[in-house]
Amino acid sequence: MRNASRVCGKCGTTVFADAPQGFCSVCLLNTGLGPLTEEIDEALEASAARMLMDFGDYELLEEIGRGGQGVVYRARQKSLNRTVAVKVISLGPWATEAHLKRFRLEAEAAASLDHPRIVPIYEIGQRDGCCYFSMRFVEGGQLDDVVRHKPMPVRRAAELVAKLAHTVHYAHQRGILHRDIKPGNILIDANGEPHLTDFGLARLVEKESTITRTVEVLGTPSYMAPEQAAGQTEQLTTATDIYGLGAVAYQLLTGQPPFAGGTTYETIRQVLETEPRRPSLLNRAIDRDLETICLKCLQKEPTKRYGSAEALADDLERFLRDEPIRSRRISRSERLWRWCKRKPVIASLVAALILVVAVAFAGVLWQLHRLEREQAIERRNLYTADMNLAHQAWQEGNLQNAQALLRAHLPKAGEEDLRGFEWRYLWQLCQDESRFTFSNIKFNARTPASAGVDRREMVLSGDGHTGYHQCLF
Q1: What are the Cα distances from residue 431, in Å, to 398, 418, 428, 434?
Q2: Radius of gyration of the chain from its Cα atoms, rounded to whole angstroms
Q3: What region does 424 belong to: left with phi over 0, alpha with psi -120 to 50, or beta?
Q4: Which end of the chain offers a freer environment for a tag, N or C, measured as fewer CB atoms within 10 Å?
Q5: Confidence at residue 19, expressed as pLDDT on a 0 to 100 scale
């Protein structure tokens, strides 16, 4: 099995393992044409100019892109008088059978998918020994040019990746893996909508071929899944494309890919061995949930990524709706806050109702406190007055009345004990019965019939009660 992780010996561009002499087509042409005279150079330039002017039914206007397999031109289709994109195999007449099969595979994979965000194929053909196919021309350009060194607004990035995830899920449902998802293979139209293109490394999920085996390490290292970088072709699944979507999201959010070494080898080593930096360290505007989604896509183990591109799209859309994402559990307070953000009108009404109830409750508590305070003041005033009355009763010798006034201020359960030194002093004074007076007692003397002459009974009448006591006079 040949290792396909090679770069051009002159310019460093990624090339296929079976590229002639290990050079890309441009360097091969420059090397071959180097010794020619100026006259021959001029003739070749004229020939190239004629080719740009005339390519069968297409008039090639300008080069707009270049990839590992071909060169893309903006062209005019003469028969329909419309602007299209034409991709021509880069090796031209030097293309091997493997290159031709791979080129046709790209066209067939894209042509089998009918989706508004997948660039459609119009025609595939061959002219002057060069294979080509025409496709829809997307005027906006590559996403790579939009976010080369500058992060995209967070919500805009989430919206774009969610749309791409739906597109990739559509391809997966039809048994096609893209295997080279990166900003350079995503076109943005005039309305800002993304379109997936360049299925040059695509393959059928359930059908492995000799062509896919030869490109097992092909791809762009910075956006390549670890299992793809390790050449584990049999382990490439839909999780490989989910990793690519996560790598695209990482660049959109931070302005740089998750891994970028000084060389292809160093980048692949980082992909296999190191963890990406947290996006929030590079862009503080990134939400915790969005960072969680991005890093889940970039897990080294395919089983730890999202189970499908649709699940990724669902989590991104939940984030955009301020709903809890499924890849992270959140607290009740955070869940409540997100509900308030989703339902601001209802949340405002509920908050207003709670505020009214709270104010009313606070008013009731204040009134109760005020009543308790007034009652306490009243009790203290009554206590002061009763202490004065008790002292006056003691001075008059009316201990019974004084004690009654003092007993009235014995604290009940839960009541504040207001008794001080004055109460205890008066209570002690009231225990001295020598101050007891008989001003309210009536004395009546009579001699009952049965009594002897030397005995009499005294009738004591006090507080409505009468008692008879024998006494000797």
Answers
A1: 12, 21, 5, 9
A2: 49
A3: alpha
A4: C
A5: 62
Per-residue pLDDT, 447: 40
- Alpha-carbon distance of 292 to 190, in angstroms, equals 31
Cβ neighbours of residue 89 under 8 Å, at least 6 residues apart? Answer: 69, 70, 95, 99, 100, 103, 130, 131, 132
Residues in the chain: 473
- Other Cβ atoms closer than 10 A to 334: 13
For 245-270, write each residue's pLDDT tens digit: 999 999 999 999 999 888 888 999 99
Q: Where do we find the tokens 């310019």? A: 11
Eight-state DSSP code of residue 140? T
Task: For residues 99 and 57, give the distance between their C-alpha atoms in angstroms, rounded to a whole number.
Answer: 24
- Cα–Cα distance, 348 to 99 (Å, whole number): 64
What is the average per-residue pLDDT within 276-296?
Answer: 93
Handedness of CA 344, 346, 350, 352 (dihedral sign): positive
DSSP H helices in 179-237: 210-214, 226-229
Catalytic residues: 180
d(CA 87, CA 64): 10
DSSP for 322-365?
TPPPTTS---HHHHHHHHHHH-HHHHHHHHHHHHHHHHHHHHHH
Residues with Cβ < 8 Å from 410, sequence gap 6 or more?
419
Name which of 231, 264, 208, 178 is nearest 1 in CA terms.
231
C-alpha closest to that of 3 among 18, 14, 13:
18
Determine if residue 337 is left, alpha or beta; phi over 0 gives left, psi from -120 to 50 gives alpha, anything else beta. Answer: alpha
Is the distance from CB of 379 to CB of 418 less than 8 angstroms?
A: yes
pTM: 0.61
For residue 320, the one-letter residue type is L
Q: Would you say 16 and 24 are in contact if contact means Cβ atoms under 8 Å apart? A: no
Q: Measure the CA–CA gap between 89 and 337, rounded to whole angstroms.
A: 55
How far apart CA 289 and CA 318 sit, in angstroms, is 10
Q: Which residues does 101 contact at the CB level (< 8 Å), separation at least 6? A: 211
Nearest-angstrom CA–CA distance, 233 and 205: 11
Spatial distance between the Cα atoms of 299 and 226, rounded to a whole number of angstroms: 9
